Structure formats: C-alpha cells, structure tokens
Amino acid sequence: MEIHNRGSIRGNLWSRLIGHQSDLQGNSNKMDRVKAANDTIGRNVSQMKVNMENIEQAEMDNAEELDDLRERLEEMKEKAIEAQCRSMKYNLIFSGIVESPWDANGHGEDSEKVVKTFIRDKLEMEDADDIQMANVHRIGKRDRSTGATPRPIIVKFVFFKDLTKVKMSTRKLAGTSFGVNEQFPKEIEEKRKDL
C-alpha cells in the first residue's frame, strides 16, 4: 500500500508540478505581453516627446513669422499714411459755410460755386473764379432734421499756388465761425490733437 501511496503522491506532485509549470508559462506569457505593451508605451512616449518638440519649434517659428508680419504691417501702414498725406497735400477743408437745402428735384448745391463765392466774399480774393479745383464736395452725413450744423466742404486744388494763396488769406476769418484747414489722414489728426 505504501508503494501505491507513493505512486499516487508522485502522480499528484507531478500533476501539481505540471500545473505550476503551466501557471509559470502563463505568467511568463503575461509578462512578455506587459513588456511588449510597456515597450510600445515607451516608443509612443518618445514619439510624443519628438512631436511636442516639433510643435514647440513650430510655435517659435510662427511667433517669429507673426512678429515679422506685424513689422511689415506697420511699415505698410506708415507708407499708406505717407501716400495719403501726399494725396491730401492739395486739399483744404472749409467749415462753417451754410448748406443750401435741396431743390424740388433732389439736387443739392453746386459746392464749387459755393466755395468760390466764399473765397471771393470772405477771403476777399477777387481772382476766386480763376482758381482751378479738381474736386469739391461736402463730407459727412447731411443733418436732414435741423440742418443746423453745415457739413464741411473738402476742396482739392489743381495748383498748389492757389491753395497757398487761399491759406494765406484765412487770417481774414479771425473771429468768425468759418474755418479753413489742411486735410490730414485720421492717424495724423489724432496725433496732432494729442500735442
């Protein structure tokens, strides 16, 4: 019976050993899968680091490019203001001149005729009709309700000498509600107000 028990114990131990070996093999397989997953995670993390470095570099490049674009935009604004100044060099703005109502046909006043009359009568320039004007019109929205505040008239002179003569005569407007001023771009006007 002892032999039989020994064989049975051996068989039992053998099957337990086989079971443990199978468990060890299963654990080894699990460890291999964990190691493979860990390696994959490591590669992914490394790739993410590279991607982050690339993104950071792209952000720095974009920031530099944005700074360059801002600089170029400022240069373009300055050049546009210079061009506006040059195009406005021949312009004067007349303010305070009463605005005539529209006629029955919806036609307004002849702004050039109004300005020339103003120059002749208020600035006392007899040769007002000889002054050549390229463009004359009122600026701003017309106040249809009261018409109390007349819109300014902008005049583009053909010859700078005519503009200069008119400017020199504006001293005669001292103490009146009339004004004659040079036209400047909005940015320049704002800077002049600050001074």
Polypeptide structure, described:
By secondary structure, the chain is of the alpha+beta class. The protein has two domains: 1-82; 89-194, L1 transposable element, RRM domain (Alpha-Beta Plaits, 2-Layer Sandwich), CATH 3.30.70.1820. The chain is 60% helix and 10% strand. It contains four helices and four strands, in the order αβαββαβα. The longest helix is centred in the first third of the chain and has 87 residues, at 2-88. The protein is rod-shaped and about 145 Å long.
Distance separating the two termini: 121 Å
Structural domain count: 2
**How many alpha or pi helices?**
4
Uncertain runs with pLDDT below 50, 5 residues or more?
none
- In N-to-C order, the SSE pattern is HEHEEHEH
Q: Would you state the CATH class of the largest domain?
A: Alpha Beta
Helix/sheet category: alpha+beta
The CATH topology label of the largest domain is: Alpha-Beta Plaits
Based on CA atoms alone, the radius of gyration comes out at 45 Å
Strand order of the largest sheet: 2-3-1-4
Average pLDDT, all residues = 85
